[in-house]
Amino acid sequence: MKIEQLHKLFLECQSACTDTRKIKPNDMFFALKGDNFNGNTYAVKAIESGAKYCIVDEAEFNTSPQTILVTNVLETLQELASFHRTYLNIPIIALTGSNGKTTTKELINATLSQKYRTTATVGNLNNHIGVPLTLLSMTKNTEIGIVEMGANHLKEIEFLSNIAKPDYGYITNFGKAHLEGFGSVEGVIKGKSELYQFLNENNKTIFVNGNDAIQLEKTKQSNTIVFGKNTGFDVQVSFIEAQPNVSVNYNGLTIQSHLIGEYNFFNIAAAITIANYFKVDDKLIKTGIENYIPSNNRSQVLTKGSNKIILDAYNANPTSMQAALLNFEKLNDGNKIAFLGDMFELGNDAEQEHHNIIGLIEALNFQAVLIGENFNKTTSNSNKVTTFESFDDFKNKFETSKLTNSTLLIKGSRGMAMERILDLL
């Protein structure tokens, strides 16, 4: 079946789905395969659950008028998403980066949605499956699409850009993330900059943090909208303070966010700049930023008993860990303890990067509890640092009941699931 024909069938459907547990009536189900599952085997269940059509790539499961046999389900999903994007012909904003991309995406959506009907990536569905599903979630009612792109190897952003065909793009930053896949920070810069390359080659627009020298260098020949703290930029946003939350000044308006940490300043400034470009009224931009409340373990501020908790446990890498610790140091709170989990996907740099974090903690004025194999084998002579080899080891030995009237930072890579500490408090 040609992609044009498949797209006509897709337009009869409610949405695209890859999980039979989440099927809604009239969905189009894509029977994807993984290392430990074969979606083809769920074809009958998908139809019984209400799917209008089921896309399979193994002939033995093509047993119904509602099943459609293709050569490769994943490639068909990607091709259909790209065709649908062209069919809709709406502005698409893409963003990637080492840190802050999901928060920035949410802020962009919060501001643009004050004026437009937007569709944005849900959560962090930002890979070779998530990006197509995001595009297929857009409809004729969508006026602007916002697509987050993640990557841990070279050529991934290039691949996703060719699917989404963005008109606008922004890279939050270049940091020490996924070093195992990218090989080095230079590899990270090269990989993330594949978005710039696509936009350049197609004469599209790039939003640039003018206070980031690497971004300026990478985009100096581009069609750019430059923002930052300096006068003379296309958009100027001034930092006011980060305590208790980040507040900024834009066009004479004070905007008070619910985000912690000065590192969120440029995430806010990027959203303001993009909304400004799309002619969202300044007061509506303020409303969008101020109404956004972080969730999903990202920069959340919680209270448990007498303890204040900064929950930033969705993920971690050396760059984001350092930023979180330096922000924690600036808090004027009394008894402060950082609970940190191992940072993953650092390859040969893992030992040194964990050692660097411990060195930073030793220079700061709070206690730290470090959990995970990498932190545990990195020695420290400081009485500020306590290490545990695993979360179970920590749970069995650390008396969380003694934590009262304290401010706690909880951060670690996703695989550490550091939010489990909340259940112990």
From TrEMBL:
Signal peptide: none annotated. This is UDP-N-acetylmuramoyl-tripeptide--D-alanyl-D-alanine ligase. Residues 298-379 form the Mur ligase C-terminal domain. It comes from Mariniflexile gromovii. Its main location: cytoplasm. It holds the Pfam family Mur_ligase_C. Belongs to the MurCDEF family. MurF subfamily. SUPFAM superfamilies: MurD-like peptide ligases, catalytic domain, MurD-like peptide ligases, peptide-binding domain, MurE/MurF N-terminal domain. One of its GO terms (molecular function) is ligase activity. Its EC number is 6.3.2.10. Involved in cell wall formation. Catalyzes the final step in the synthesis of UDP-N-acetylmuramoyl-pentapeptide, the precursor of murein. Keywords: ATP-binding, Cell cycle, Cell division, Cell shape, Cell wall biogenesis/degradation, Cytoplasm, Ligase, Nucleotide-binding, Peptidoglycan synthesis. It comes from the Bacteria. It is found in: Cytoplasm. Pathway: Cell wall biogenesis; peptidoglycan biosynthesis. It catalyses: D-alanyl-D-alanine + UDP-N-acetyl-alpha-D-muramoyl-L-alanyl-gamma-D-glutamyl-meso-2,6-diaminopimelate + ATP = UDP-N-acetyl-alpha-D-muramoyl-L-alanyl-gamma-D-glutamyl-meso-2,6-diaminopimeloyl-D-alanyl-D-alanine + ADP + phosphate + H(+). ATP binds at G97, S98, N99, G100, K101, T102, T103. Residues 18-68 form the Mur ligase N-terminal catalytic domain. HAMAP family: MurF.
